[in-house]
Design a protein that fits this description.
Length: 417
């Protein structure tokens, strides 16, 4: 069944100072940014406090920083924008932001050390409680792709097991719920959770823990390199992740939030960003149970800031001086066309069997990655117009599960030619 209303938003990247704007918080500049976002017709933003600035000591959560976050949320409300807050930043655009009390002389595993986890819980609980009475507060995301700290390719990882990852997720989501009961609290990982065999954060975690499943779709992960800018697998990558996530969901209609998706240059050149945006969103909205689409990102990163990967400078829907770019025009057009229409895609009746071994730990999940047997078979079916979804091998004989999802035809990857 559809989960309505379908939401369209953007990950808010401040035009002045990027996320370092928290150091010199300027509410007027924030308001101007939010005006430009609201002008695209969007209804929500995802916001990123920098963890070391908000909690510089394990027992110090700066009241002034929390107050500024609330001011930002109130400014968003004035412009009709709801707010989701990512707490543990964590990692953003190739930079890590971890507080000193977890590093060097105080080096502790951020997922398993009891004092660190207690400090994280108090921090998330405090942010959630500060916003709990705001009607436009959607809820908390634990952090931005914080799973990247749990193993390779991070240069200094905090290794954990899937069981430890599960405990960490549940502990911190409970803290968010204590701070703001009944809101949409979730966690979000980058695609190693779906594609990397030995990664501690698993598809089962993503699809079974938290209020919704979040997927982050980036075609620079080998998809666009292998299939090209207009390849079926590239333009359908977001839709693929949405459908892949459903294989592990125990709720047949669990909402899925496409929480990050963008048009990365040079794989998607600037002159093709609008077309890629239109195709990606259209294909994602051909999936059932989509909670919403939140584009990365609102504003370009200023060229005055050094050392970002080149693609990070140009991902905005708006320029650094708040001018709408072609991708922004495309998103605004999609929002305008969808306004007042019902979101009700047809069920996907053909399911491709995904076999990653044990369902909980998915030891063979690289089959789902670009170049993997499942990924490539899914792309071939999609190119043939089959509109596939995914089903776990363990569920193929479960007629109740198949019926609840509307699946009438099941194929294995080796049956796809």
């Amino acid at each position: 069944m559809p989960h309505s209303p379908l939401r369209f938003g953007v990950n808010y990247t401040p035009s002045q100072g990027w996320f370092h704007h928290w150091l010199d918080f300027d509410l007027d500049a924030v308001r101007a940014d939010l005006d430009s976002i609201a002008g695209l017709g969007l209804d929500h933003i995802r916001v990123f406090p920098l963890w070391p600035l908000f909690q510089p000591n394990r027992t110090l959560i700066r009241p002034r920083a929390v107050e500024q976050l609330v001011q930002l949320a109130d400014a968003a409300a004035e412009r009709g924008l709801d707010v989701n807050v990512d707490g543990l930043q964590g990692h953003l655009s190739s930079f890590d932001f971890l507080p000193a009390w977890t590093q060097t002389w105080h080096r502790r595993n951020i997922f398993t050390d009891p004092d660190v986890v207690e400090g994280q819980a108090e921090y998330l609980r405090t942010l959630a409680a500060a916003l709990a009475d705001r009607p436009n507060f959607l809820g908390m995301t634990l952090g931005n792709e914080i799973n990247q700290f749990s193993g390779p390719p991070h240069p200094d990882p905090d290794p954990i097991t899937p069981e430890q990852a599960s405990r960490w997720l549940r502990t911190l989501l409970d803290a968010c719920e204590e701070g703001a009961p009944g809101r949409l609290h979730l966690h979000a990982e980058y695609d190693a959770a779906w594609y990397q065999d030995d990664h501690a954060f698993t598809p089962a975690h993503a699809a079974r823990i938290g209020a919704v499943t979040a997927v982050h779709s980036w075609v620079f992960n080998g998809t666009a390199q292998r299939h090209g800018r207009t390849g079926t697998a590239t333009e359908h990558h977001a839709a693929y992740l949405i459908e892949l996530s459903k294989a592990w969901a125990t709720d047949p209609h669990r909402p899925v939030w496409l929480q990050e998706v963008g048009a990365p240059a040079p794989l998607v050149p600037a002159e093709h960003a609008a077309a890629f945006t239109e195709a990606t969103v259209a294909n994602a909205l051909d999936c059932e149970d989509v909670w919403g689409v939140t584009w990365w990102c609102s504003h370009d990163v200023s060229r005055s800031l050094a050392d970002f990967p080149e693609l990070e400078y140009s991902l905005g829907l708006l320029t650094n001086d708040r001018q709408v770019k072609p991708a922004g025009e495309a998103i605004a057009g999609i929002v305008a066309d969808r306004r007042g229409t019902e979101y009700r895609p047809e069920p996907r009746t053909t399911a491709l069997v995904v076999d990653t071994g044990d369902d909980d730990t998915a030891p063979r999940r690289s089959t789902c990655a670009p170049g993997g047997a499942f990924f490539e078979a899914f792309a071939r079916l999609t190119a043939d117009g089959a509109r596939p979804t995914a089903v776990l091998a363990s569920q193929v004989g479960n007629q109740e599960h198949l019926a609840a999802r509307g699946i009438t035809d099941v194929l294995t990857p080796d049956q796809v030619r």
